[in-house]
Amino acid sequence: MTLSKLSLRNARRQARDYLVYFATVVMAAALLYSFNALTFSQEISSLSQSMEMLPFMIALATVVVVCVFGWLVAYATKFMLLRRGRELGTYLLIGLENRQVARLFFLENLAVGVCALALGTVLGGLLYQAFRAVVLALFRMPYRFAFGFSIPALGLTAASFALIYLLALHRSQTYIRRASIRRLIDSDRRNEGAVIRTGKKRRWVFGASIVLGVAGTFLIMVRDLAVATAGAGCLILFLFGFFLSFASGVPAFFDKRPARKYRGVTLLVFRTLTAKLATMGVLMATISMIFTATILSEGSGLVFRGLFAGRAAECACFDLYVALEGENKNPEPYLNYIAEQIPVEQSLLYQVCLTDSHAVRDYIEAQAVYYYYNYDQDPVLRWSDYAALRSIAGYPAVEPEPGRYLIHCMTYLEEPLRNYGQPVTLGGITLSPGSVYTEHLYQSYGVANGRGYILVVPDEAADGLPVHHLAYAAKTVQPVPAAQYDALTGASGGQGNPLGYGFVSTKANEEEGAAVQTALFVFPLYYLALALTMTAATILTTQQLSESERYQRQFSLLQKLGMGRREMAKALRAQFAIYYALPAVPPVLLGVPFLLHLANAPEPGVMTGASSPPAVVLTALALFFLIYAVYILIAYVSLKRNVLPA
């Protein structure tokens, strides 16, 4: 058999034996191609001027992803090399030279990489269509399937794969060229070794790692770069200290508790695990660190998405909104421009007034987190103006309540304001509290319809009240284009705004801004999180499946000793549960408080509903464990089928 035929045969066997690794490499190629295609897409970049930053943001994420996948390929290549040491050493025994064996190993891994790249590129073309559809949906643009390949994206993906594989295989070739027959044959017996051996050191390192973990969790949530960096360092030390001391300390734990040691299948489970974990302390810590980064990336993406969507939803309730305050309350230039340039279906010029007290504000501050900004007194809106605004925004009409004032507020203030029972007296008219409404009504900024809330009173009760600012809201025939928005804001004039000094907002601009920010920040974070999860889970699964022969011998012996298949399956499930839970539990404990803190950082009223802090945490964990569970299920089904006696 020629060297090339032997390489192809081994490549097919390698792809079969390490199917999870091969599938992950295919998916890696698909991800790289699909995101590279996004960066080179003229259609995507033309959606907005701000989308010109998308290639830069994806390029930054791609650099990290290439490094992550490079580590996966390098680790897997080295792992397979050590596992196949006897086979490669046998080739030397039968007369092949080191350089020939090195070339054989190089060619078979190169064949696997080329096949993965080819399959991944085809899959990446379909994946790109999915990402393209999502981006177009963000901008409310129609999607039409148009399958095709991007030559620049394909070239960049191929270059990334070449870099990953050539670097990994160069190290393997160097190892094989310098290795002796004995070193190759004995290579699969070499382990990492237990770094911490004595019980005293184990207890000290374990205790210190817990302290570092708690301290790092608090420090990383401080809004200071230097302090947060120190917190990240503490967390890294925690993970390595925890796994190095935990893996070495299990035998000591059971030596002091022999009753637990011999209960059920405990001895079998923990004896098998300690034999494996004692040689994987550094690796398990590294994987746990990757899982932590994964959960933080997914959670951060959800926070950013909720932040952008929440702000846009509140500020995009009107097709066009203009506010003028202070001495610049002349709306005529704006009204004239709108009459000439922007077709309008319905509009309203109105006043936001102030009461002579801040009783409602004081009550809210005592009940919830609230920032009132430049509203020193409670804001007021006339009933007729409020009814017109609801019509312009497309909300159902509401009936006035004689002798009462209504409250319109953001969702997070609904519960405390429903319990507010104090009357107000305006213009000699005393009004008791009425209904509370919570639709979006542009209540996020200081020149809006109140900051988070506004009192809606009969028109006559508002007569004579001081005016906080003038406002204009309109429902337009079509979305206000970017050119007209620039003209209204003065962005296209170069010498300030010729129309005046008003605050201008449009629904089209708010939605476009949210779409751009989501594409620039959320997409790269999900891209990175997916790559990290796949890499770490693949390494764990490859390690576990590589023990198939040892598990098979172990369970065959146990069957001869009288253990039933049900007990064997129970022991296997317990081993799986502990093995896969160990690197995942610390990231959950570290990630949950960080994400809760991050989701509570934006201004109140933005992170609500599906973007509330608890929802962000649960969704991030669900996304992580959904992908993780796929690898666990594949490994368990494969191992159960191969190692348990029939």
Please give a handful of descriptors for the protein shown.
single chain, 646 residues, alpha+beta, nine-stranded mixed sheet, 9% strand, elongated
Would you summarize the structure shown here?
Helices cover 65% and strands 9% of the residues. It is an alpha+beta fold and 646 residues long.
Structure, explained:
With 646 residues, the protein is of the alpha+beta class. The protein contains 24 helices and 9 strands. The chain has helices at 3-17, 19-40, 42-45, 54-83, 85-93, 98-138, 151-178, 181-185, 199-219, 225-255, 258-261, 266-277, 281-315, 332-341, 359-367, 383-393, 414-418, 459-462, 482-489, 507-545, 548-560, 565-581, 585-599, 613-643; strands at 320-325, 344-354, 379-382, 404-409, 424-426, 429-437, 453-457, 467-476, 503-506. The protein has a 9-stranded mixed beta sheet with strand order 5-6-4-7-3-2-8-1-9. Helix 2 packs across helix 6, helix 12 (266-277) packs across helix 22 and helix 13 runs antiparallel to helix 20. The longest helix has 41 residues, at 98-138. It starts with a helix and ends with a helix.
Mean pLDDT: 82
Low-confidence stretches: none
Strand order of the largest sheet: 5-6-4-7-3-2-8-1-9
Based on secondary structure, the structural category is alpha+beta
Total helical segments:
24
- The proportion of residues in beta strands is 5-15%
Rounded radius of gyration (Å): 32 Å
Helix content range:
55-70%
Principal-axis shape equals: elongated
Largest sheet: 9 strands, mixed
First and last CA, distance: 37 Å
> How many β strands by DSSP?
9
